[in-house]
Each structure stands twice: as structure tokens, then as C-alpha cells.
């Protein structure tokens, strides 16, 4: 018999979440409210010039050290820890994109210090999640961390970030549609635990932004807020379930396969966006539930890529990645395990959906 799961029992969430046009200005108050007086600031070189320098100024007297993330490997985190020696920090502030926030999550968890997540863009749902994605020897590795203690999502900063990254965040959010369908398959066929609350939290913002694609302008603050809040909710579902199950299904396996094989030049959200079109096609074909054309047209409307060549992929590379995807995280039951599509099935799907 399936063991009883008590989601929520041990789930931890950010204690402070602020999504506003001035959230960055709350950083000093946030640290002080947490009784923190000695912070490690993690950022990137571009982001420093664009926004983090000002945040450092706001934190005058509170920042003990500023670290720039260039590459994202565990050895980089360890090196920073060694360089810090006996310096005692009681908090970590991360200002940046996914790489910076992932670095910050890991180092803050290892130092057992609260992490303040200040996303400089909205490229994926790692903003508020308790997971960091690293690459070790070219292989993607997901590391469980503490969730950020606070998330300060500044819409002014995000609005001025590269639009390609924000469009990528849209792709990562709507991928929840196939991720949840895959989870339901796991529940029905493998008797997997399933949380209706987590699934709804993942689906609602994704469906809202799919429905609004016609009107969506990712430069308009109120629209951007919807996207950012959706990504934050998505990250929180990972806290509820203790894994990325509600927001990562076959479309993410495809993206991980591309990363592993080193194919193309797409961002995470661009890859999963295209993966979502393909996996929705398979769901719709097999079970009559889904609308891959809606996924595709919404991505087109926000000007995210929907064709392999737009992210530097050939048809052969896409097919190899789809075949490889079945070997990624084998225990996670998805439409790929369910249908076990052949090479010909993949070719038909790619042609029908216009991905190649
Ligand atoms: N934890 C999770 O759940 C997830 C993590 N990931 C991981 O996240 C990473 C990808 O994140 P992503 O954000 O797409 O990419 P990056 O963090 O690599 O950022 C992409 C580029 O955009 C720049 N940038 C970001 N914000 C701004 C800004 N406001 N102004 C100017 N430049 C800016 C960065 O500058 P700079 O060089 O200064 O950093 C960087 O050069 C990958 O490592 C991926 O594995 C992906 C999905 C989920
Ligand atoms: O990208 C993620 C969710 O959007 C993280 O998922 P993974 O656990 O598949 O890396
Ligand atoms: Zn993702």
C-alpha cells in the first residue's frame, strides 16, 4: 500500500515575499528585521553594473564581502568558503539571474545563514525554490537547499533586464502544464503521491498566462508582476512536495538532455518552452487532453522561440535529445515513459508541431 505522505509537515517557505516596483529598496530593512549585520553579497559582473552596485551602497556597513559568480560549479562555492576563512557572515544576499541565485542558495545553506533572493530577471522558477541546478562534468545536477528566507522581486529591475530572459521565464512557467499532466500520469499509473494544492499552485498561473498571451506585454509592470508571482508560486510548490515534480516533467527532461549533450544555444526557459509544445502534442494525441497549438501560439505571441533552429538546433539534434531524455531521471514517470515514442513518432511530432 502507498505510504501516507504529509506534504506541508516539513515544508519551509520564504518568510518575506515582496513583488513591487521598489522591492530592492527594502533590502536593508529586510536584513535588519532578521537581525543580520554581516552579509555576503553574491552577484554577477553585468548585474553588478546594472543594479547590484546600488544595492551594495544601500547595504553600506552590512556587506562583509562581495563575490562575483562567473562559473557555477560546486568547487566555486567551496573556493569562496575557503577564501572567507574565519570571516563570519550571518546572511547571504544574492542579486542576479539563475546562476547567482543558485550559488547563493547553496552557500547560504552550507553556512546555515538566511538567503535574500533578489532576482535581477525572471528567467525561471528558481527565484523562490529550494533547489539549485549545477553542472558537474557537464551533467546537470539538482541540489536541495533551504528556500530563500526572503524574496525581493523588483519589477523595475526585472523590466530593464534582457527581454530574452523574461520571455524564457514565460516558457518555464507554462511548462507546468505538461509537468502536471505527467504528474497525474504518475499518480494514475504508478500510484505516485500527488498533491492537489501543489498541482493547482503550479497550474493556475500557467493557465492564466497562457490565456492572457494575446494581451500580454512583458514590459508592462502589472503583466510582469503576474509572471514573477507565477514563478514564485511555482518555486513554492517544490517546497511543498520536496521535489520539482509539479513544475518539471518530460519537457524538462528534454531540456536537461540538450544541456547534457551540449546542443544549441537556448536558455533553460526557451528549451523547456519548445519541449512543452512537443510533450503537449503527445498528451493530446494519446489522451485527447491538451492543446499544443495554444502552447505554441502563446510562445509566438510573446516572441519566444518555437522552432528548433531559433535556438541553434538541427532536427537530428532534437531527435537525439528526445531519445536521450528518456534516460534522464528515469524514476520520474512522464509521457515519454508512458508512450515510449519511437524515432518515427518523434519525427512525426516535430513535423506536425512545426518545431523542425
Ligand atoms: N534553481 C532552479 O530551480 C533553476 C535553475 N536554473 C539554472 O539557472 C541558470 C540560468 O539562469 P538565467 O537567469 O537564465 O541565466 P544567468 O544567471 O546565466 O544570466 C544570464 C545572463 O544575463 C545577465 N543578467 C541577468 N540579469 C540581468 C540584468 N538585470 N541586467 C543585465 N544583465 C543581466 C547575467 O549577468 P551576469 O554575468 O552578471 O550574471 C548573465 O550574463 C542555469 O545555471 C540553470 O541551470 C534553471 C532553472 C531552474
Ligand atoms: O527547472 C526546474 C523547474 O522549473 C527545476 O527542475 P529540475 O529539478 O528538473 O532541474
Ligand atoms: Zn525549469
TrEMBL record:
It is found in: Cytoplasm. Binds 1 zinc ion per subunit. Its EC number is 1.1.1.261. Gene3D superfamilies: 3.40.50.1970, Dehydroquinate synthase-like - alpha domain (1.20.1090.10). Pathway: Membrane lipid metabolism; glycerophospholipid metabolism. InterPro entries: G1P_dehydrogenase_arc (IPR023002), G1PDH (IPR032837), Glycerol_DH (IPR016205). Glycerol binds at residues 125, 172, 252, 268. Belongs to the glycerol-1-phosphate dehydrogenase family. This is Glycerol-1-phosphate dehydrogenase [NAD(P)+]. The lineage of its organism: Archaea, Methanobacteriati, Methanobacteriota, Archaeoglobi, Archaeoglobales.
Amino acid at each position: 500500500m502507498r505510504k501516507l505522505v504529509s506534504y506541508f509537515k516539513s515544508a519551509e517557505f520564504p518568510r518575506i515575499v515582496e513583488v513591487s516596483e521598489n522591492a530592492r529598496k527594502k533590502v536593508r530593512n529586510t536584513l535588519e528585521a532578521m537581525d543580520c549585520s554581516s552579509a555576503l553579497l553574491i552577484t554577477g559582473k553585468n548585474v553588478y553594473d546594472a543594479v547590484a552596485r546600488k544595492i551594495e551602497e544601500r547595504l553600506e556597513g552590512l556587506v562583509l564581502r562581495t563575490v562575483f559568480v562567473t562559473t557555477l560549479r560546486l568547487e566555486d562555492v567551496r573556493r569562496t568558503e575557503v577564501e572567507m576563512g574565519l570571516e563570519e557572515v550571518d546572511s547571504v544576499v544574492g542579486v542576479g539571474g539563475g546562476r547567482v541565485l543558485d550559488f547563493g542558495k547553496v552557500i547560504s545553506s552550507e553556512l546555515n545563514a538566511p538567503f535574500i533572493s533578489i532576482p535581477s530577471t525572471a528567467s525561471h522558477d528558481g527565484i523562490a525554490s529550494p533547489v539549485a541546478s549545477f553542472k558537474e562534468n557537464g551533467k546537470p545536477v539538482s541540489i536541495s537547499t533551504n528556500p530563500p528566507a526572503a524574496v525581493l522581486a523588483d519589477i523595475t529591475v526585472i523590466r530593464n533586464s534582457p527581454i530574452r530572459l523574461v520571455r524564457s521565464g514565460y516558457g518555464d512557467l507554462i511548462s507546468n502544464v505538461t509537468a502536471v499532466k505527467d504528474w497525474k500520469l504518475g499518480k494514475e499509473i504508478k500510484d505516485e503521491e500527488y498533491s492537489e494544492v501543489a498541482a493547482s499552485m503550479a497550474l493556475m498561473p500557467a493557465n492564466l498566462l497562457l490565456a492572457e498571451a494575446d494581451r500580454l506585454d512583458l514590459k508592462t509592470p502589472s503583466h510582469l508582476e503576474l509572471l514573477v508571482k507565477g514563478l514564485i508560486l511555482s518555486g513554492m510548490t517544490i517546497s511543498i512536495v520536496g521535489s520539482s515534480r509539479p513544475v518539471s516533467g518530460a519537457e524538462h527532461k528534454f531540456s536537461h538532455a540538450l544541456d547534457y549533450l551540449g546542443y544549441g544555444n537556448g536558455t533553460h526557459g526557451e528549451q523547456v518552452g519548445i519541449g512543452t509544445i512537443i510533450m503537449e502534442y503527445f498528451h493530446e494525441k494519446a489522451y485527447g487532453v491538451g492543446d499544443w497549438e495554444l502552447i505554441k501560439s502563446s510562445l509566438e505571441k510573446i516572441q519566444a522561440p518555437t522552432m528548433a533552429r531559433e535556438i541553434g538546433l538541427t532536427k537530428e539534434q532534437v531527435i537525439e535529445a528526445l531519445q536521450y531524455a528518456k534516460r534522464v531521471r528515469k524514476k520520474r514517470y512522464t509521457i515519454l515513459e508512458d508512450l515510449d515514442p519511437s524515432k518515427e513518432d518523434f519525427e512525426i511530432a516535430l513535423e506536425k508541431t512545426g518545431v523542425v
